Amino acid sequence: MSVVHVETGRHLYGGALQVLYLAQGLQERGIESVLMVPRGSEVAAAGRDRWLRVEEFPFRGEADVMALARMAARFRRADVELVHLHSRRGADTLGAVAATVARVPVVVTRRVDNPEVEWVVGAKYGLYRRVIAISAAVREVLVDQGVPREKISLVHSAVEAGDWVDPVARRETDAEFGLVPGEPAGAMVAQFIPRKGHWVLVDALAILKRRGMTPSVVLFGRGPMGENVAELAEVAGVVNQIRFAGFRTDLHRWLGSFDFCVHPPLREGLGVAVLQAGAAGLPVVGTRAGGVPEIIQDGRTGLLCPPGDAGALATALASILADPEAARAMGRRARERIESRFSVDTMVDGNLNVYREAVRRRHNR
């Protein structure tokens, strides 16, 4: 079998990382995979670093009709048995039309839990042979919008747990990010976009400060809201507790050296950062948004709060800070859960089962 994967995101965020995991795992199983990505993207470079077959093409966004023509021409080639679309940035619509024109089966992975315009759902999802949801929460959003349940396969995102188990010593982390030795510190890993809930964390830190607790939090990531978060922290009086670390390709070296991870999104498909933190052995204070509760077992591997509730988030963080030994035990259980339930092998096998069904239906027809 041969598969063309279309990922139109340019940055190596959680979804794009899943595509690399998948393509590499398929190659190891003898399934030829081609990554079709925008020219000059971070994904292209990372794919080549993993010795994957990468094909770059000009892509200017969701209205790029020429990109549709390029994809259709590529999909018509004899070496293509299946097309897998991974991104909503034009790939899910233009790619679906291109695959339909080329008469090749197409599947799509849905990674977000926000509803779409109803008429778009009806028009677009009829083109896919199968839809892969990365969480039960995403699947239910699709079903609520009219996508037949039997057309959807649940395949959770994954993490290479072994990459996260050997962090640097805490003293190196303190020096790298300007933290006070011996003081509690956590991490948040997310793009600076509204739905990730940075403002909820800022408000929670302000509440904790009024209670006499001043943990530091290092924010890993980039995005258009970075300056806004810094301004909010200044107004709230907690700017000295926050460090802006930017997007780090070496995150695996640092994450496990923190005391906790905080993940307060308002909406979330699943939460790759939560998987990474769990693999690193950290308790995660998260919200009951989207698929996050499918990873965090409340009170066992972390703590869950209502989305947007800064008071509840502050209380949960205070609980972690008050009992470090219990927090470390949560982190150990989190690592066990990630290793057993969210492995890359399980994710690759789940996608491969979907492929086989899609191709089998094509042959039967």
Name the descriptors.
365 residues; alpha/beta; seven-stranded parallel sheet
Helix-strand layout with pairing:
Blueprint: E1 2-6, H1 14-28, E2 32-38, H2 42-49, E3 53-57, H3 65-75, E4 82-85, H4 91-102, E5 106-110, H5 118-125, E6 130-133, H6 136-144, E7 152-154, H7 170-177, E8 185-189, H8 198-210, E9 216-220, H9 226-236, E10 242-246, H10 251-254, E11 260-263, H11 272-279, E12 284-287, H12 292-295, E13 302-305, H13 310-322, H14 324-341, H15 344-364
Parallel strand pairs: 1-2, 1-4, 2-3, 4-5, 5-6, 6-7, 8-9, 8-11, 9-10, 11-12, 12-13
Helix pairs in contact: 1-15, 3-4, 8-9, 8-13, 11-14
Describe the structure.
- It is a single chain.
- The protein has a 7-stranded parallel sheet with strand order 3-2-1-4-5-6-7, sandwiched between helices.
- With 365 residues, the chain is an alpha/beta fold.
- It contains 15 helices and 13 strands.
How would you briefly describe this protein structure?
By secondary structure, this protein is of the alpha/beta class.
The end-to-end distance, rounded to whole angstroms, is: 18 Å
What's the total number of strands?
13
The biggest sheet amounts to: 7 strands, parallel
What overall form do the CA principal axes indicate?
A: elongated
Structural class: alpha/beta
Q: What is the percent of helical residues?
A: 40-55%
Task: List the uncertain runs.
Answer: none
How large is the share of residues in beta strands? 15-25%
